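Second opinion, please. Please look over this fold, written as tokens:

===
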Amino acid sequence: MAPGGLFWWVGAGVLVVLELLSGTFYLLTIALGCVAAAIAHIAGAAADMQFAVAAIVALAAVLVLRRSRFGRRRRTEASRNPDVNLDIGQTVNVPAWHERRARVSYRGADWDVELAPGEPEDAHTYEIRELRGSCLVVAARQHARPNAAHL
């Protein structure tokens, strides 16, 4: 194998390793371009053609990735995003409601609690869905259904 082809294979390998560390898939698309350029080198293409093939294949792969579900970012407001706010998904007990609002003790402090639209007031245990300042927006906690095998 000529040194020019080795350049493309090593480049693809390095990009795959970096992709494993980043987890975004975009470096993988560039690695695909390197593999295509290595194949073009084996086919006898000139260096400028190899770079053109690498660029075209990588660009096409990026466009395909952007249109797939893996390339789309989910836009979640920080007030509802459990990756930003660790309180999202936690549970609180609300003994009584007054016009869909209550005051509860959570994490050693008193918090205002608001019931999310359409949620029942009789659940007593609620899951935090959103934070609005110092107000917890909650929904009735969904209890796991018993497994039929354990009945």
Summary: The mean pLDDT is 84. Helices lie at 3-22, 26-42, 47-67. The two ends are 65 Å apart (CA to CA).
